[in-house]
Write a structure and sequence with these properties.
The structure holds two protein chains of two kinds.
Chain A lengths: L1 H59 L4 E10 L2 H4 L7 H5 L3 H12 L6 H8 L6 H11 L7 E7 L2 H7 L14 H12 L3 E5 L2 H4 L12 H32 L4 H13 L4 H15 L7 H25 L3 H9 L4 H29 L3 H5 L20 H10 L4 H31 L4
Antiparallel strand pairs in A: 1-2, 1-3
Helix pairs in contact in A: 1-18, 10-13, 10-15, 10-17, 12-13, 13-15, 14-15, 15-18, 17-18
Chain B lengths: L2 H29 L11 H41 L8 H10 L10 H39 L6 H41 L2 H6 L3 E2 L14 E2 L2 H32 L2 H16 L2 H22 L9 H26 L2 H9 L4 H30 L2 H6 L17 H9 L8 H35 L1
Antiparallel strand pairs in B: 1-2
Helix pairs in contact in B: 1-2, 1-4, 2-4, 2-5, 5-15, 7-10, 7-12, 8-10, 9-10, 10-12, 11-12, 12-15, 14-15
Chain lengths: ~425, ~450
């Protein structure tokens, strides 16, 4: 009886082993596929990152090159009506546009028709006359003779010079005249390309070739400064209280729930808060880095508090007990021993919070930092814009010249973020202690 | 004196008090050196307490005055304008701004009536400024004298000082509550005004959204409609696309990183994935609008589909890429939290690694993963810049991801950017949408945090 049973079980055992052995191949295959899917999903994410960054960089590169056209300007005293010794105000009032246009007409005497002349004049940027004015105000000796001066070209001409326009294609957006004028100027060697310093020196403009990033960078710096000054002390104080002093009660629980929830509230809601409370109720100035900084500090507060709390928590209890045992008060223990030990971790969290604030756009749109502002802000209450908002504004502009400017602004923004994150990593590596 | 000078004065004053008190107590200690008690407080604490007496009440009063002076000025000018029967002829706020910004150096070009109001404004402002200076400074002096009398060698100065510091720390912690209250009140208050004009049911269940109110009442086709259903559907659609991209990719990367990858690969891949989370959303928006959307459009056209140039798909896919690291780090956390015993038990019974993961780890970690997905969904719903730049403005009620839809956040931004008076139904509608957004994300967050906590407790 029993032997039959064993035999049966032997058979079934063998057949089970066989079964398992047979299935092994497909199971290992599944294993391999699964592993491959995991690996490839990581590489898909990497691939997107690579595409994103290279796309931005490729588009940004031309923005750092500026096309200038060399023209021989007649700055003689008869033509300008002023001399080198004239009053600054008179020099400012000279019609520089006329001088530029005359120089263009002298360069191309064959262009006669009204419409063609208009096209020809549009080679030079409309902002060039102001640049010329500033140049001469700074340097009045230029007046009195003919001068060869390089003037910034219009964005369309700039695109032509950079070879961004497909001249052979069917959808030629450019009239032949501009192309011929460009070729003629190019042959004479009067089209010069140089590094675009102007991009870093000026504020926003309606003309792509005149637009610069400086206003936005300064605005961002002011905003981040306000954010840092407000959020760092408050967040550190809150974190110290919650970790070291807070009793266990419902009120403290409520605070903690609030902090965790605020960390996940959409940023645009903070913008609504800023608009309703700080601008409409407290009548703080619109579009100012002050309000932007306040809103962003409320937004980054939870991030910094959470980071600071975990840094404080990581300080070993033995440190506290030793200090208390030597007779220090609770406050002295915290401020003389625990806080300095936790500071590198807190700073790292703060920098990451600041990087988050630097890249934030949506709440700032709500409080009016989206306005078109040419002047470079001088104080935290001046109207200003910030880097990400500048990116948003430029990306909305229809002129093709703004495409490369947008990418360049993104590149600068990303460079700032990389610098901040690198600093955070450096701090962590340098001061990290294993207790 | 302006506020900055007053604060500076108070600080100098407080520093001075500290110095004097410190010296005084120090002198007392020197005299009493012989009969030293063992309960000795450091002299600096007496100094701190003395300077706190002069500083804190004055600063508080200054703060209150700063908060009320702007509304006070406004109401005063408004009263003055009404009393003098001056025709404003424009929005009150703009008018007040005009009055404030009149420069006295080119009086000739300015309307004489405005100049009169400006003069009144200046008089009143000087009055407030003077009153502020006198009140604050005299309070500081009074409290200093009081404090000087109050702080003696027998005062438990350190205890007082530490108590005050603790209260300041507590106040810093309650700012989180104040922020939440501020958000709720500001959004709720404006929303209630909106629901006074537009019935809440029309807003919640109406299917037509066209917030353009008529400039003239006789305009044709100008009646505004505030039915938010197309926005809700559009938001859901884009978020669904985003989750469809980010959940599988994020989950699989997390599984690979926590279960398969060597520690070397892990230490390289994790930070690189985190870069995706660190890129500003406006950059993703630019990428979606200028690279992904045209690409999808061309791809669709080549397959014979008509794709809108601002398709929900483009915005959704890019948003999905953005939240991959978010999903993957949350999933990584919960998968690593599954006890090793479960892993080893399954492997010991002969299961392959992938079978262990699919049949043991994922079911065990499921609550945590669901919580993570909910958090990711709340992220996607609240995301603004990508959709502002890459999704449409027209409110189409559709679930076809190839068409253009608009979202709640896009509409908030469109309604509130640009110059318009603040009280129109149009701007108030933005706050009602903000309320919806806040409540939805709040509910998602609370559920998610609850689920995750419950799950953690299970294995602790």
């Amino acid at each position: 009886m029993w032997s039959e049973n064993t035999e049966n079980s032997m058979i079934s055992k063998i057949s089970n082993t066989e079964k398992v052995k047979k299935s092994l191949k497909s199971r290992y295959l599944k294993e391999k596929i699964f592993k491959f899917v995991g690996l490839s999903s990581i590489f898909v994410a990497f691939f997107f990152l690579l595409i994103l960054l290279s796309d931005v960089m490729m588009k940004a590169f031309p923005a750092f090159i500026q096309t200038k056209v060399e023209l021989e300007l007649d700055l003689s005293e008869e033509n300008t009506g002023v001399s080198a010794k004239s009053d600054i105000k008179e020099i400012k009032d000279v019609d520089y546009r006329k001088i530029i246009r005359e120089a263009l007409s002298a360069e191309f005497p064959e262009v006669k028709k009204r419409a063609e002349k208009k096209t020809m004049f549009s080679i030079i940027s409309t902002g060039a006359e102001f640049q010329l004015r500033d140049m001469i105000v700074d340097n009045p000796q230029l007046i009195g003779s003919k001068q060869k001066i390089e003037l910034v070209a219009d964005d369309n001409f700039d695109a032509l010079a950079k070879g961004q326009i497909d001249l052979t294609g069917e959808q030629k957006r450019f009239d032949d005249l501009t192309i011929n004028l460009y070729k003629e100027l190019d042959e004479k060697g009067k089209v010069n390309k140089s590094f675009n310093w102007q991009f870093f020196k000026t504020g926003d403009s309606r003309e792509p070739e005149q637009a610069g990033i400086k206003g936005a960078v300064i605005g961002s710096l002011y905003t981040i400064l306000v954010t840092l000054l407000l959020s760092f002390p408050v967040a550190v104080a809150a974190a110290i209280y919650l970790e070291e002093f807070a009793p266990k009660n419902r009120f403290i629980d409520f605070i903690e729930i609030n902090i965790n929830n605020l960390a996940a509230v959409p940023s645009i809601v903070f913008g609504l808060l800023g608009l309703a409370v700080f601008i409409n109720f407290f009548s703080l100035p619109r579009s100012a880095p002050l309000v932007g900084g306040i809103v962003l500090s409320l937004m980054t507060l939870p991030t910094i508090i959470i980071a600071a709390r975990s840094a404080i928590k990581a300080v070993p209890p033995s440190l506290r007990e030793a200090a208390l045992g030597l007779g220090a008060s609770k406050m002295q223990t915290v401020f003389h021993h625990v806080f300095p030990a936790a500071l590198p971790g807190i700073l790292t969290g703060t920098i990451i919070g600041m990087a988050q604030a630097l890249g934030e756009t949506a709440p700032l749109l709500m409080i009016g930092m989206v306005a078109f502002i040419v002047d470079i802000p001088q104080a935290i209450t001046d109207p200003a814009t910030v880097l990400p908002v500048q990116v948003f504004l430029w990306s909305d502009s229809p002129e093709r010249g703004f495409l490369e400017k947008t990418s360049a602004a993104i590149l600068i923004l990303i460079l700032f973020l990389i610098a901040m994150n690198a600093l955070a990593i450096y701090l962590r590596k340098k001061f990290e202690k294993k207790w | 004196m302006n506020t900055g000078t007053i604060v500076l004065f108070l600080l100098i004053f407080a520093g001075f008090n500290y110095f004097i008190k410190h010296r005084k107590i120090y002198a007392v200690y020197r005299v009493n050196r012989k009969k030293q008690s063992n309960k000795m407080t450091l002299p600096k604490y007496f100094g701190y307490v003395a300077s706190m007496w002069s500083l804190i009440p004055a600063l508080l009063v200054l703060l209150v005055i700063e908060i009320i002076d702007e509304p006070l000025l406004k109401s005063n000018i408004t009263n003055y304008v009404h009393a003098e029967n001056i025709e404003i002829g424009q929005d009150l706020d703009l008018y007040l701004n005009d009055i404030k910004n009149i420069k006295t150096d080119n009086i000739k070009d300015v309307d004489p009536i405005k100049l009169k109001v400006h003069e009144h404004y200046q008089n009143f402002e000087t009055l407030i400024s003077k009153a502020k200076t006198i009140i604050v400074i005299s309070l500081a002096v009074l409290m200093t004298i009081f404090g000087f009398k109050k702080v003696t060698i027998n005062t438990p100065a350190r205890v007082y000082f530490e108590k005050v510091i603790e209260i300041i720390l507590l106040l810093a912690a309650t700012i989180a509550i104040l922020t939440t209250v501020g958000i709720v009140l500001s959004v709720l208050f404006e929303s209630l005004r909106f629901f006074g004009e537009v019935p809440i049911l029309d807003f919640m269940f109406g299917t037509e959204w066209s917030p353009q109110t008529a400039i003239r009442s006789d305009q044709v086709g100008s009646s505004a409609a505030f039915g938010a259903v197309p926005l809700f559907v559009g938001t859901m659609l884009i978020s669904a696309v985003a989750l469809f991209v980010s959940v599988p990719l994020g989950l699989m990367s997390a599984i690979f990183l926590s279960e398969y990858a060597s520690s070397k690969f892990r230490s390289f891949a994790k930070p690189v994935l985190e870069i995706l989370a660190g890129i500003p959303t406006v950059v993703y928006g630019f990428f979606a609008a200028l690279t992904v959307a045209p690409f999808i459009r061309e791809l669709g056209t080549s397959m014979g589909l008509s794709v809108a140039s601002e398709s929900a798909l483009a915005a959704g896919v890019v948003m999905g890429i953005m939240i991959i690291p978010f999903v993957s780090s949350l999933a990584d956390d919960v998968i690593s939290a599954v006890p090793n015993a479960m892993r080893e038990g399954s492997l010991g019974l002969g299961a392959t690694k992938s079978e262990t993961i699919i049949k043991v780890l994922i079911p065990a970690a499921l609550p945590g993963i669901v919580g993570g997905v909910l958090l990711a969904a709340s992220r996607a719903i609240g995301e603004t810049m990508i959709v502002v730049m890459a999704a449409g403005l027209a409110a189409n009620l559709t679930v076809n991801p190839l068409e253009a839809v608009t979202t709640v956040t896009v509409q908030i931004v469109t309604l509130l950017t640009g110059d318009q008076e603040f009280d129109s139904a149009k701007t108030l509608a933005a706050f009602a949408l903000g309320l919806m957004l806040f409540v939805t994300t709040l509910i998602l967050n609370v559920i998610a945090l609850h689920v995750v906590r419950k799950y953690r407790e299970q294995y602790d």
